[in-house]
Design a protein that fits this description.
Length: 715
């Protein structure tokens, strides 16, 4: 059989075998889009009509299949549950066609084989994998779960416990791990993969490998009695449900589908999987997480565009060797760019190197890095008290104290000591890049580069364009951030840039609730239930209440019409009482050090009394009212940032808040949440809360969207 499609080609091989090769034309990877699935159906029908002696399935790319085409997901999710179920069962019929062929089949996994690609591989009788291959079912990270037979086949091949772990976590696994649980049948070096796969196919055709028994096992019920099944599935649902939480239903739904289908044949179990998938795909969580995934792709695409014309960064430097400087140095060196770490105090350098070493040790402990690699990364960080080696540095990140005068002085010094044309960036969270550039002779070589703490864990970097920053400077900063493994988003200069500018209206909403006598612990609980990783009081304790007061002053000076306030705020009173948060053990909460792990949070009567005396009202607000009063100021400020041209697209705002603040990913971003709520409802809510001040004043953008019946994303 010979077939020449846009995504799939088949060719006859010696011995009566046929090779089915995935090779999507015009793309660097193979993926299951409508074209690929349609061609596979045609090929399978041909194979059923005229079965070969054996089927070898390969890839013409460096990967096997990276999964389904996520760009098509949201279109599919607009279907009814019945339509979506029918679509899934149609795909199942194609995969079943491969599994039910009257000949053996072997898949050669040469690289990434994920999601629908791995489900296709599971439908074959045997799998050979190169040591470069990685396999997995990451669908739960998109708010769904495997819907093309993954829950059915993996549980029957590898056991329910292994299938639950792989599907619920959504992780990728190297070939060796897959071999241990029976998800693949052989592992070899990449150059031997074809030879090994063909030998397996020949052995199966010759009867040395029992492919018919393998096929029958996958089509039969799971070999568990009712007691065993109850123990496996009920225990897993309780554990996984506790880990995932109520806002992420897909991992538990996947286990439920496996449980309901465990005692049934393959075809009946597939019907349950499809119906359960269709129900989960219609949830807001699935829509939100797929939106974040697609948003991430768009932001990365914009980053590649913004980095065109970048200068090469072969060696970097960071000024300031505190926790932040040490984190930046670690991130740069661990991703392959050697870096100098300069400070004026030897103790600070020790702290910075200690921070980098601590981060690397954790990687070694978790098996993510070898001791040799750790030594290599540490060797890439050079601590120094002088500017002696700065003539060899291409890019300098200033990360000293958040004080404009200090930063200007340090930046002028480094410019005088750096090589001509070196790019300078300030890691500042609030201070105007345009003003900082006043200290420099070559402001065109300067921009902002706002990292988020802790640097290794937070994916976002705001690259801030000052009034005189050159396109080459911005391009180089974006390219360097990307090389460090970060997601850069370019924003224009203003107080607080994007993330902090929209965070402080959120804190202002919190202040107004405290003034009305609402318990700070209740606000934390409500906002955490809504999806934030921590409520506003806890967040201020972690960031530092004194830091919050300083930033609040900067924002009030920049936007006095809506961010200034009369009298002493609650957080100013906390700072006056020497309550700075975790850093000194006393904030909204008290913090008790532990021998292992983070400090323990306790409620403190002092805070209760201080806030009780501060309040000027009695609480008359529902939990929904708390969310409304907290989120509206943030949303409206995000809208103003779009109106002011601080950032170009709603998607960049969505991703910046998810990656920089921990905005609940399952909500898809702040503008996705707003679009789900509807512009008319948000406009009415803003008007209802007008008494609370200018932060609640509707923007023209919101008013226009409400009138047009459209959302921020144009839908």
């Amino acid at each position: 059989m010979k077939y020449e499609g846009q995504a799939i080609q088949t060719v006859p091989l010696d011995g009566g075998f046929v090779e089915l090769r995935f090779d999507l034309k015009g793309d660097s990877v193979n993926k299951f889009n409508a074209l690929t699935l349609g061609e596979l159906k045609e090929v399978v029908e041909g194979l059923k009509t005229s079965p070969p002696k054996g089927l070898l399935v390969t890839s013409g790319k460096d990967v096997f299949i990276v999964g389904a085409d996520v760009t098509e997901f949201l279109t599919h999710f607009k279907r009814t549950e019945e339509e979506l179920t029918a679509w899934l069962l149609a795909a199942d019929a194609v995969f079943n066609g491969i599994e039910d062929l009257d000949c053996p089949s072997v898949v050669a996994l040469n690289g990434f084989c994920l999601g629908g690609g791995f489900e296709l591989a599971l439908s074959a009788h045997f799998r050979a994998a190169s040591t470069a291959a990685k396999v997995g079912l990451p669908e739960t990270k998109l708010g769904i779960f495997p819907g093309w037979g993954g829950t059915v086949r993996l549980s029957r091949m590898c056991g329910a416990d292994n299938a639950i772990e792989w599907i619920a976590t959504g992780e990728q696994y190297p070939a060796a791990e897959a071999l241990k649980i029976g998800a693949v049948d052989a592992v070899c070096e990449p150059e031997k993969l074809r030879e090994v796969a063909l030998r397996m196919l020949q052995d199966a055709a010759d009867g040395k490998l029992d492919w018919k028994t393998r096929r029958d096992e996958k089509k039969a019920p799971l070999p568990l009695n009712k007691v065993e099944a109850g123990m496996v599935f009920e225990g897993a649902k309780a554990f996984v449900g506790g880990k995932a939480g109520p806002n992420y239903p897909s991992p538990v739904a996947a286990i439920e589908a496996m449980q309901k289908g465990a005692g049934l044949s393959r075809d009946e179990a597939l019907k349950i999987e499809a119906a359960t998938f269709a129900r989960i795909a219609k949830t807001p969580t699935a829509h939100g997480l797929v939106s974040v995934f697609l948003g991430d792709q768009l932001v990365k695409k914009l980053g590649r565009k913004a980095s065109k014309g970048a200068k090469p960064v072969e060696r970097a430097a960071v000024l300031g060797a505190g926790i932040m400087g040490g984190g930046i140095a670690y991130q740069s060196a661990s991703k392959g760019t050697p870096i100098l770490m300069k400070d004026i105090a030897p103790k600070a350098l020790q702290l910075g190197m200690g921070e980098a070493a601590k981060l690397l040790e954790k990687q070694v402990e978790r098996g993510k890095m070898t001791a040799g690699k750790m030594a290599q990364v540490l060797a890439g960080i050079t601590p120094t008290l002088s500017y002696g080696d700065f003539k060899a540095v291409d890019f300098v990140v200033e990360a000293v104290v958040e004080n404009e005068k200090v930063k200007k002085s340090v930046l002028a010094d480094v410019e005088a000591n750096a090589k001509e044309g070196a790019i300078l960036a300030s890691n500042t969270s609030t201070i105007s890049i345009t003003r900082l550039a006043e200290a420099l002779k070559f402001p065109e070589n300067f921009c902002g580069m706002h990292f988020f703490n802790p640097v290794p864990r937070m994916p976002l970097v705001e690259v801030i364009r000052g009034a005189k920053s050159s396109p080459e400077t911005i391009a180089t900063a974006v390219a360097y951030a990307t090389a460090m493994g970060k997601t850069p988003i370019v924003v224009n200069d203003c107080a607080g840039f994007l993330v902090n500018r929209v965070l402080f209206p959120y804190f202002s909403g919190f202040e107004a609730l405290l003034l009305d006598g609402v318990d700070y612990k209740r606000v934390d609980k409500v906002m955490e239930k809504w999806g934030w990783p921590m409520g506003p009081a806890l967040l201020l304790d972690v960031v530092g209440i004194d830091t919050g007061v300083h930033a609040d002053e900067v924002m009030a000076a920049a936007f006095p019409d809506r961010m200034s306030h009369e009298g002493e705020s609650a957080i100013e009173k906390m700072v006056a009482a020497q309550r700075f948060g975790q850093k000194n053990g006393k904030g909204f909460y008290t913090w008790e050090p532990q021998k292992k792990g983070p400090p323990k949070k306790n409620v403190d009567p002092f805070t209760e009394e201080l806030l009780k005396a501060h309040a000027k009202g009695t609480p008359e607000v529902t939990d929904a009212g708390i969310v409304e009063r907290m989120m509206l100021p943030m949303l409206l400020e995000c809208s103003r940032c779009l109106e002011d041209g601080i950032v170009e697209t709603p998607t960049e705002v969505d991703l910046a808040l998810v990656y920089g603040l921990g905005f609940p990913p399952f909500r898809g971003g702040i503008f996705r949440w707003a679009d789900a709520a509807g512009a008319p409802a948000l406009l009415a809510a803003a008007e209802k809360n007008a008494r609370l001040g200018a932060l609640y004043a509707p923007t023209k953008q919101l008013s226009d969207l409400a009138a047009a019946g459209r959302g921020f994303h144009g839908e």
